[in-house]
C-alpha cells in the first residue's frame, strides 16, 4: 500500500468522485464518456471545490476557471481509466485495507479520527465521501503499480554502478580502524602449497566468525607487517590504506570480517574494528532447526501436535537426536535431509508465528509445538550472530533509486498509452476522441 505523504486536502484532490459513487441530483449531467464509464458534472464540481480549498490552505494562486476546469477534467479521465484497469485486474480495496490506509494517513498527519471528521465537515465534505475517494485513489494506484512494474527492467550492472557512486559519496572523510592477517605464499610456491594456504585462510575466517580473537590469530598466524601488533593498523581513511585494503572495504561497517582474498603475496583477512563518520547497518541472523508436521484428512491438529510433543520429550530426554527426529518426521524435505537445519537467516524471512518463536526463545531451547500456515512445528535456535549489512543496504538503496526513477518514467508512458487508446467523448463540446487524439475537446 502506498504511503500517504500528501496533505489531507491533497488526498481529497487525488480521489475526486467518479460516476460509480456520485449521487446524481436533479441538476446533474454527464459531461464526459470514458470508454464504458462516465464523468458527471458533480464530479467536476467536487474536485474544483477541493482544489480551491487546498490552494487557499497553501496560499496558492490558481488559473481562471476555464483552464482549471480543463485540468480537473483531464485528472478525472486519467483516474477513471486507471480504475477501469483495476476492475479488469479484479482489484478490490476492502474496508479493512481502507481503514489501515486512513489510520496510516492520520499518523503521518498527526491527527485523530474525530479531528479528521471535524475538518471534513468544516469543508462541506462527508466522511463517507472521503472514504470512497480514498478507496478510488488506492485502487488507481494499485492498478498503475501492477502495470508499470511489468515494464521495468533493472540490470545488476546498473545497481552496482549506482551503488559504487553512493559509496564514494558516503565514504568521503570516513575513517576505519582495521586489523589484518596475511597468510604468505611465495611466488615460486607449488599448487599444493597455495591450496594449503587458501584452506588455512578460510579456516581462520570461519573461526573469526565464530568469535575467535583476531589479535591472537594475527600473533599466531599472520606474516603481515603488523603481526606483532596483533594485526592492528589503527585509524586510516580509505585513501591512506594499502590498495588491497581499500578495494575490499567498500561500504562494510564495524565488526565486518572481510576475506580471505588473494594478492600477489598471499591471502588476506581484514577486520573493521570501528569506524568514524560511517553509518552502518547491522542485522541479527539466527541459525535454527525445526520439525514440521502437516495435518491431513487422516492426521488432525490434535494428533499432529501430540506427535511433536512426543518427539520433543524424546529429544530433551536424550532418547533421540533432533536430526534423527527431523529426518523421520519432518514434512519439510529441504531441511529434513539436513537434520532440520534451516541455515543462517534473518527472522524476517519466516512467517509471523515462526519469526516470533526464533526471535524470542533462548539459544538451545526447543519450543513447544506451535502452528503456522504450513502446519505444526517445533523449533530450536542453534545460534545467533550480528552481521554487517551496510553494503547490502547501499545496494538496496541504489535499487530503490533506480526503481523509483524508472517507475516515474514508465508510469507517464503507460498513462499516455492508456489515454491514447481510450474512447473519450466530451459531451459538453460534442467531440469524441478514440485511439490517439488528446481528448481535450
UniProtKB/TrEMBL annotation:
InterPro entries to which the protein is assigned, alphabetical: OMP_Chaperone_SurA, PPIase_dom_sf, PPIase_PpiC, PPIase_PpiC_CS, PPIase_SurA, SurA_N, Trigger_fact/SurA_dom_sf
Pfam families: Rotamase, Rotamase_3, SurA_N
Protein name: Chaperone SurA
PANTHER family per UniProt: CHAPERONE SURA (PTHR47637:SF1)
Function in brief: Chaperone involved in the correct folding and assembly of outer membrane proteins. Recognizes specific patterns of aromatic residues and the orientation of their side chains, which are found more frequently in integral outer membrane proteins. May act in both early periplasmic and late outer membrane-associated steps of protein maturation.
Organism field: Photobacterium jeanii
GTP-binding found in the keyword field: no
PROSITE patterns: PPIC_PPIASE_1, PPIC_PPIASE_2
Top-rank taxon: Bacteria
Domain observations: The PPIase activity resides only in the second parvulin domain. The N-terminal region and the C-terminal tail are necessary and sufficient for the chaperone activity of SurA. The PPIase activity is dispensable for SurA to function as a chaperone. The N-terminal region and the C-terminal tail are also required for porin recognition.
Entry's localization field: Periplasm
UniProt KW keywords: Chaperone, Isomerase, Periplasm, Repeat, Rotamase, Signal
EC number: 5.2.1.8
Gene3D superfamilies: 3.10.50.40, Porin chaperone SurA, peptide-binding domain (1.10.4030.10)
Taxonomic classification: Bacteria, Pseudomonadati, Pseudomonadota, Gammaproteobacteria, Vibrionales
GO cellular component, one term: outer membrane-bounded periplasmic space
